[in-house]
Amino acid sequence: QVQLVESGGGLVQAGGSLRLSCAASGSIFTYRAMGWYRQAPEKQRELVARIWRDGTTNYADSVKGRFTISRDNANNTVYLQMNSLKREDTAVYYCNGVWNYIAYWGQGTQVTVSS
């Protein structure tokens, strides 16, 4: 059974940093891709960052240069380092994993950036 469990969200002031973690069941190397999405109130869920099995990464334009996705294969964990946070980064952040061409989601973790 595929399970993704996020942690690391919270309240931070604008300009601050947070690191989100996503612990996956089984080896993350078996996932075709893993990523982070976010959903703000009354907005659609959007891709924030993604890392493919070969290590290639993709970022939303709004977070380029501020966020970094990485993985720890030994601990089956994917991270999202978020720096220079802005109020508009406030959202529920979801971990996503594509395993056997099926997308799986974590339960989400709230990130709130205050001014």
Q: Low-confidence parts lasting 5 or more residues at pLDDT below 50? A: none
Helix percent reads under 10%
Beta strand count? 11
SS element count, helices: 0
Radius of gyration: 13 Å
**Helix-strand topology string:** EEEEEEEEEEE
Portion in beta strands: over 45%
Instruction: Please describe the biggest sheet, giving its number of strands, its sense, and whether it closes into a barrel.
Output: 7 strands, mixed
Can you tell me the overall shape?
globular
The averaged pLDDT comes out at: 96
Structural class: mainly beta
Kindly, what is the distance between the CA atoms of the first and last residues, rounded to a whole number of angstroms?
A: 40 Å
Explained architecture:
The protein is mostly beta strands. It contains no helices and 11 strands. Strands 2, 4, 5, 6, 9, 10 and 11 form a 7-stranded mixed sheet that branches. A 4-stranded antiparallel sheet has the order 1-3-8-7, with no helix packed on it. It starts with a strand and ends with a strand. The mean pLDDT is 96.
Give keywords.
115 residues; globular; 11 strands; mainly beta
Short structural description:
By secondary structure, the chain is mainly beta.
Write the layout of secondary structure elements.
Blueprint (H helix, E strand, L loop, with lengths): L3 E4 L2 E4 L4 E7 L8 E7 L6 E7 L4 E3 L7 E6 L4 E6 L8 E9 L2 E4 L3 E6 L1
Parallel strand pairs: 2-11
Antiparallel strand pairs: 1-3, 3-8, 4-5, 4-9, 5-6, 7-8, 9-10, 9-11
